[in-house]
Amino acid sequence: DYASSGMIARLCFLFALAAASEPSAFITIDAGSTGTRLHIHRYTPRWYRWSSFRFIPDLPDLDLDRIQTYKLTPGLSSFHTQPTAAMLQVAELIDWAKQQIPSDLWAQTPVHLQATGGLRLLPVTEALALLSACGK
After folding, report:
1. Which of 33, 67, 72, 95 can pair with 117 through a Cys bridge, CB separation 3.0 to 4.6 Å?
2. How far is CA 1 from the centre of its chain?
3. Higher model confidence: residue 101 or residue 21?
């Protein structure tokens, strides 16, 4: 269920981006057991608001109508003996995202990989090898 998957990750990004003024998107990659989904979340940054005699960052406006999603199968855990293949799958997702996001925002667009599902069932060394390969 997309509505509940990664909600904590998205909330963390909202708080981290609250003070930002430059980026207009962030990416979550949901590496589930049946497929790996990349979600592009668009937002409008807000500056600061006055509260209790000080300026504090305000939360950005998340545009829920503009979430873009791209899915590849199989899930990352299927590559447990082939970390390079997992890296190539994530690279394909990132390449798609780069086509959706203006190039001047690439360096400022945070990417969060959340590995759930089948990765929990793998031995720790295999899961770490996959995640390490995907971070390259």
Report:
1. 33
2. 16
3. 101
